[in-house]
Amino acid sequence: MAELPGAVLFACTLNAFRSPMAEGIMKRLYGRRVYVDSCGVRPEPERGPDPFVIQVMDEIGIDLSGFRPKSFAEMADTGFDLIITLSPEAHHHALELTRTQAVDVRYWPTIDPSAFTGS
Predict the structure, then answer these.
(1) Cα–Cα nearest to 102, from 29, 5, 3
(2) Each residue of 35-66: pLDDT tens digit?
(3) Confidence category of residue 69, pLDDT binned at 50, 70, 90
(4) CA 78, CA 63: separation in Å to the nearest integer?
(5) Contact criterion met (CB below 8 Å) for 67 and 49
(6) What span, in angstroms and rounded, lies between the C-alpha atoms of 43 and 11?
(7) Which domains are assigned to the chain?
(8) What is the rounded distance in angstroms from the CA atom of residue 113 to the CA atom of residue 47?
(9) DSSP state letter for 105
(10) Minimal CA–CA distance to 54: which of 16, 11, 87?
């Protein structure tokens, strides 16, 4: 088994759909063994996570009702070993911010659920 990183950041565009879900799932799987957080390129803190995200995560026992979207700037003073980006915009932003740092940045292409309507 590969060694776990000490700190992981999930990043997407709004920090309202993909990255909060990834953060919640990883926290559930690894608990306090790994520090996990998430952020977005253009978060809307007043909006919070999407209500559908809260409902879906609640179905698997993960409470995101108190989640507040954060920006990359809010993460500036936190050191991460691994940044997993879930949108092209977040990936480019993470690469630009970490170009002089020893941080592993990985892109996991993930469809933006906000682009869809209906049930």
Answers:
(1) 5
(2) 999 999 999 888 888 898 999 999 999 999 99
(3) very high
(4) 24
(5) yes
(6) 10
(7) 11-111 (3.40.50.2300)
(8) 16
(9) E
(10) 16
